[in-house]
Specification:
Blueprint: E1 2-6, H1 11-22, E2 26-31, E3 46-49, H2 55-62, E4 67-70, H3 82-103, E5 107-111, H4 140-157, E6 162-167, E7 169-171, H5 180-189, E8 195-196, E9 200-205, H6 206-219, E10 225-228, E11 231-234, H7 235-246, E12 253-254, H8 258-271, H9 282-287, H10 297-303, H11 310-323
Parallel strand pairs: 1-2, 1-4, 2-3, 4-5, 5-6, 6-10, 7-9, 8-12
Antiparallel strand pairs: 9-11
Helix pairs in contact: 1-6, 2-3, 3-4, 5-11, 7-11
Length: 327
Amino acid sequence: MKAFITGATGFVGGNLARALLDDGHQVRALVRPGSDRRNIAGLPIELAEGDLDNQRKLTEQIAGCDVIFHVAAHYSLWVKDRASIYRANVDGTKNLLAAARAVGVKRFVHTSSVAAIGVPPPGALGNEQTQTTLEELVSDYKKSKYLAEQAAFQAAREGLDVVIVNPSTPIGAHDVKPTPTGEIVLRFLQDRMPAYVRTGLNLIDVEDVARGHILAWRKGRTGERYILGNRNLSLKDMLEALAAITGKRAPRIAIPHFIPLAVAFVDEMILARLGKTPQVSFYSVQMSRKAMYYDSSKAVRELGLPQTPVETALEKAVRWFEENGYV
């Protein structure tokens, strides 16, 4: 089978490309001209240069492929990136869905996010039935993922064979940029995390996320979404797990959210307008005020989603950063 992947140069997409190749499939990857291709360097995949803005060219590029994995997204929590976020994540998704309909692709796997599901109430777990509204979502990134997911649902209602996957927080090897969660690991390794805030997240090995995409292609039900997650844990627990892996000491001090919120406001809303490069995103601090805990039992039950221990995934991330000169 031949798979078409967007976002193959990224964290999840790169791991997905490797998993597909390991399974013996052919891979064609959409790559932007001049993009950082370290994540797929040396892999035997066919490169199609372009972007998600050109629907006509996309139609030509996906011709002959059996399945589309739409993993690409512009991830940014900076206010200044608002326009580019919606153009890439919403308009780009609509263009690719239209191209898939035109060509008659057999199946379209859309990579959404738990960000599009929303944050569950305190003490509850979010699941595939959890509903949110655009107004309730914090950050343009979350809003864009919600709108892109709605476009995927609409395409399914119109007859395209679409399955949606909602990864929680992937962690592991090949985190080139790195992602925000990888940045937490990296800051810990570099002794740049003297304190933490009280928040929580759902972690999953990125290789399990990649496998979940393939399982969704093979077993997923059209028009359904599947949360690709594993273990819910607090940031404090995550840091203590990293301490056990590395022998470093986990931070002991928990600071109230208003402190980083004030820092982020000054950093991004004031100093950035004076030409300074912001270090803390206002939206990222806002998002950390609520624990993002989810139930991935549907994907485990219906797809057979693997559940590699989170400690193993964290250790993979630590070793990869160490071996690739990040620390």
